[in-house]
């Protein structure tokens, strides 16, 4: 059964889909792939007691990809049902808004903001906050959707009509052009490098086939999600990834 149709970008979508977070071929399969891609950009901790702040952590999908790297993994989100699942996967849960993080300045060695920025109404405020909690020399890793017709077509017009995927989970008016994200990060001392990313074609086809089954169910054991991978691409027209180091405080 299709989840309830909510207003665009309504947080209740995530409560409706609370049981989907950890299904490899469920409605959030692509988020698993993106979490793995972000995890590959996070190096092992360079000092004892290092902290990774995962803003918009959802149910903690990044956790398996940073375990063993030496970080205290702190996850911030507004969805209580998702934070409960994140805690069960070793994440320290903090309920908070991305535009007003309840964390001290410079507390994080790494900040991850994955598939978050296309959901915030105050982009400058969210970027200010993720940069504020990052210590000088710390690493920022982000991925988001570009503000293009192609992105709207694939993420909304096509993506939100797949079986089991909620309509209204995105508001395309909030999608973020790379130049704007680079500029906002630069204002706060983070020089962000951008590259386009995409799922491998076999991964995407396997997932689409799994959603086409009755009830949108994966095969036994979730085998159709194996091998799913996000790879770099020349185009930033749909998805893109950013990585940057904080070199100092906010620019005047």
CATH C-level class is Alpha Beta
Beta strands, count? 8
Overall morphology = globular
Uncertain segments are 216-226
Supply the number of helical segments: 8
> How many domains would you count in the coordinates?
1
- CATH architecture, by name, is 3-Layer(aba) Sandwich
Secondary structure blueprint with pairings:
Blueprint: H1 12-16, H2 29-41, E1 50-55, H3 63-66, E2 71-77, H4 80-88, E3 92-95, E4 108-114, H5 123-132, E5 134-145, H6 149-158, H7 178-187, E6 190-199, H8 201-212, E7 230-233, E8 239-246
Parallel strand pairs: 1-2, 1-4, 2-3, 4-5
Antiparallel strand pairs: 5-8, 6-7, 6-8
Helix pairs in contact: 5-7
Describe the overall structure.
This protein has 252 residues and is of the alpha/beta class. The chain has one domain (12-246): Vaccinia Virus protein VP39 (Rossmann fold, 3-Layer(aba) Sandwich), CATH 3.40.50. Helix content is 29%, strand content 23%. An 8-stranded mixed beta sheet has the order 3-2-1-4-5-8-6-7. Strand 2 (71-77), helix 4 (80-88) and strand 3 form a beta-alpha-beta unit. The chain is globular. It starts with 11 loop residues before the first helix and ends in a 6-residue tail after the last strand. Mean pLDDT is 89; it is low at 216-226.
């Amino acid at each position: 059964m299709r989840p309830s149709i909510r207003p665009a970008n309504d947080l209740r979508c995530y409560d409706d889909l609370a049981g989907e977070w950890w299904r490899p071929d469920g409605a959030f399969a692509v988020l698993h792939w993106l979490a793995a891609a972000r995890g590959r950009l996070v190096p092992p901790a360079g000092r004892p007691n290092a902290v990774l702040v995962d803003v918009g952590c959802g149910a903690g999908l990044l956790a398996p990809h940073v375990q063993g790297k030496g970080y205290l993994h702190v996850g911030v989100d507004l969805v209580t049902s998702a934070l409960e699942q994140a805690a069960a996967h070793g994440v320290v849960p903090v309920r908070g808004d991305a535009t007003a993080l309840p964390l001290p300045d410079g507390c994080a060695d790494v900040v991850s903001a994955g598939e978050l920025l296309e959901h915030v109404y105050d982009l400058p405020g969210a970027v200010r906050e993720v940069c504020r909690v990052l210590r000088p020399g710390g690493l920022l890793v982000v991925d988001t959707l570009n503000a293009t017709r192609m992105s709207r077509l694939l993420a909304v017009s096509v993506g939100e009509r797949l079986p089991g995927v909620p309509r209204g989970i995105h508001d395309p008016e909030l999608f973020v052009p790379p130049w704007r994200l680079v500029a906002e990060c630069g204002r706060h001392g983070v020089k962000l490098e951008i590259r386009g990313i995409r799922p491998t074609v076999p991964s995407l086809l396997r997932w689409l086939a799994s959603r086409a089954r009755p009830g949108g169910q994966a095969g036994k054991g979730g085998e159709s999600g194996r091998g799913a991978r996000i790879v770099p691409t020349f185009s930033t027209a749909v998805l893109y990834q950013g990585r940057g180091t904080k070199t100092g405080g906010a620019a005047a």
